[in-house]
Design brief:
heterodimer, A: mainly alpha, B: mainly alpha, two-stranded antiparallel ribbon, two-stranded antiparallel sheet, 5 strands, CPA3_Na-H_Antiporter_A (chain B)
Chain lengths: ~180, ~950
Amino acid sequence: MSISLVLLIVMAVMYACGIFLLLERSMTRVLLGFLLVGNATNLLILIMGGEAGLAPIVGNGVTAEEMSDPLPQALILTAIVITFAVSAFLMALIYRSWRIEQDDDLDDDAADVAMRDGVSGIASETMDTSESDTEFGIRAEAAVSTARDLERSDELAAAEAANSVVAKPVTQKSGSGEDPR
Amino acid sequence: MIALIIAFAAVSLLLLPLTHRLGRSVFLVAALVPAAAFIYTLGQGATVLGGTVVAERYAWVPQLDLAVSVRLDPLSWALSLVVAGVGTLVLLYCARYFHHDEAHLGRFAATLLAFAGAMYGLVLADDVYLLFVFWEATSVLSYLLIGHYTERKASRGAALQALLVTTLGGLAMLVGLVMLATETGTSSLSAIVAADHEGALAITAMLLVLVGALSKSAIFPFHFWLPAAMAAPTPVSAYLHAAAMVKAGIYLIARMAPGFAEVPLWRETLVILGVFTMLLGGWTALKQTDLKLVLAHGTVSQLGFLTIVIGFGSRDTALAGLALLLAHALFKSTLFLVVGIIDHRAGTRDLRRLSGLGREAPRLAIIAALALLSMAGLPPLAGFVAKEAVFTSLLEEATAGAALGWVALIGVTLGSILTVAYSARFFWGAFFSKRDVETVRPVDENIDFLFAPAVLAVSGLVLGIFPAVMDVSAAAYSESFPPGSGESYHLALWHGLEPALAFSAATLVLGAALFMLRGRRIAQNGSLGRFSAAAGYGRVMGAIDRTAARTTGLTQRGSLPFYLGVILSMLVGTVGLAAILNRSWPTDIRLWDFPAQLAIGLVMIIASLAATRATKRFQAVVLVGVTGLGMSALFALSGAPDLALTQILVETMTLVAFVLVLRRLPARLGVQNGSGHRVVRAIIAIAVGTLMAVVAVVATGARTALPISLAWPKLAYEQGHGSNTVNVALVDLRGWDTMGELSVVIAAATGVASLIFLRSRTETAVRPTRTTTFTKIRATLESPTASGRGSWLLAGRTLDARNRSILLEVVVRLIFHSLMVLSIYLLFAGHNAPGGGFAAGLVAGLAFAARYLAGGREELAAATPLDAGKLLGAGLTLAVGTALVPLFFGVDALTSTWVSGHVWLFGELEFVTSTIFDIGVYFVVIGLALDVLRSLGSEVDRQQEEDLAVKS
């Protein structure tokens, strides 16, 4: 199959310009890049259809061989409408971002940046070495005088855990502190 | 048997609602199921022990040769009795153990019964994959059971640790099982065991399966999870950690031993790890102060013992091993239940705080003593009978010249000495009176609470006095091994003065001496030590967490351009490599299809390049729009009138939407945006552009066959009854694709409306209905302040005079209805001429856009016959209906049919049912357009007015 050089170059330029815009931080430019890439992709599909022919409408003695390939056309038609729907969604995003932040820039995600800088880490669940030696404690039928008050000690443990979290709000050293979940 | 497994699952689901009504008595209901399983198994005894295997099979996924196949042979029979019998008793015990107000009782009961079911299935399963499913089910359920006290940190940590260790082993086991099943060509466990196993592959597979078995049965180096799992409620420990789950690994070893005992490394691995575990567990048990931990470490030790004996895999050790397994299940679960009763009564399990309990609770002490004597191996209890068999059989192997026999024998003897010592320590710690320790308070002993441990303890006694009962099943199992040189051994209480008796006596004497020396020592609270396996587990988990945090920090940079850059670079790298390796280039490259392509293409290229450099928003939008219009021109000239029409309409619509949004944004585009990496971005962009060109060339060159679409025009005309092939393809030939597209459009439209109408997390703006709008318009018209200028549009006067354009109102007034008629024409003509639902919907959308632009949001609301959401829904309903209705006529979905007839004034007309589908498309597209207009238009207007009102 042969290929049209002009269409090929137009497509490559639109892809390049679209990607260049997509890599921007301004949401408006990202949307414009998206539209350019969308057009370039439609062009790619059109190129796949091969040489241009007559409209794929039966009648007037036109044969299937003379027509443009209807399959890529159906694909492109769908793609055009979806591109519109998605870009409308992106516009709504831009508007909302502007309304909330007075800004249409894509800033780095704060939580990710914190993780990257090592400010926040993962606190892992650790084994408690001071095992309890009872399930009942003072709730037992005839508890010994030294039996533990489980509910109280659990509360205490919780309070201690809370204190330790307050004392070192962010700790990179994993393995300490209660899991925030 | 399958029915019983299902009963376990079904009843456990029922327990949850029942708990609200029955409280802790729900355990009595739960106990019925394992009791039924126990009775059933007992009833099959004569058949199974007589040499007949009872099997059931239900094809599960026949294509993959997966089956729910269960098999009851002597080994499964014995294990089923343990699982069902101990399960029944533990459930009965639970009915007394928990308080009525215990939290999450229903969940606990359901999980415990489900666990019993999984365990029952595990010992019956004959298909290795089914075995694995049950195996993992026990892991997951044990996680829930160990973690029952969700509010206790130790409980959660222990549950997770047990889960991680056993599932890690389980995964290794799965790999091993798959290897074995592939190698032998069957997934039947019995067939795999019966097959020949030779070569490195078989050994690797076997070792992998053993990793699973050993981790489940808490054998070194996986032993550490078991003592930690003592954070579970004590009935759970009695069942899972004495009788059932930890026996799963032992069961698998016993199951495989007949076929694998002679495979290299089997015996070496099991005996050496077993001996080490037995000694380690016994020694640690001797140092514990928590009675439950004495038992836990003792269990680790006993599991090592079982691994040695069962893993040894000769005929007589197999017999001894199964007897030992039964004896251990009885005495160890008894002891756990006893500990539970002590804790329930005294509120502690610490032997340093218990004193005088033997005098206050004599019945409990007797029960415990029976179990401890069995554990220590004293006559006339089951433990003694089993241990005698162990000594005799191992001695025979050792004297026959097997070096491992000596290792096993010496290990077992030393381990038994430790067992005697920690048994004594348990009894001393729990029941003796101690100086300087306060005596426990007297309470009446509850006979019903003692029932379960009493039955288990007495069973140990009965089996000891009548060992023939054990012997029958153990001997039946041992027959699966090749007969030894001498006469086969049989269990008996009295074998005469044999060497084994001397071993037993020696262990007792030395054990008693060890207890006197070390057994009453109170060690400092057993620190685990830096090099213990548990500490190793902690370090591994910590390292994993840290690595995860670092990897996340390294890869999740939080920057969208960075992510995109990485993705695109990968694309260029991988696809580029594939393209370079390509050998199929197109035969020829032509310059253009027609000269106009060059002119249009030049305009598009210039517009694209300019768009990247534009500094004003509107400028950039228009430049991008130019490329869209260029596309439209290309389509029109390339024989794609539908595309040209749709593209030009979409361009217009996009421009309208853009203008609506851009009016709220500053005109200038930010200048600093991403400027730091301009060169990098340009390089990536150029690389991707070039790559796509290469891909296009390669793909075109790779085409050899004629396109499938050559048949489409004929298909469209004859089957779809339409001349416009593209349209028929959309609504008929490839209707499913369009259906998918409609869903995307609806999702996007809903997303647009949600983003704009959402004010806070909970509140959404009220969308004006048509009636309220009309009322409002009428009020404006009738108000005396209304401007004197005539109105061409319904809501014209609602607008501020400064915002009105009479020219626009007149034009819109004149063209709106024409546009609507045009859109309906396009809709129906689309089947045979350019047009169709998409184009028609866009034309209608533009007509509404014109109304909005001229008359404002009141005008739009008044002009809209239906809410946008309803239109979207109606559209999708029509499309789905068109797809589904043919099914009722017995043909494939989306099959179209047609009617033709003579209509007055119109002449001969033809109606194809796929047109209904197109009407659905039409509605959806109008819905999308309306959603865009009312969100980005009307609602943004309103918010702007609101903002202005706030400012002033």
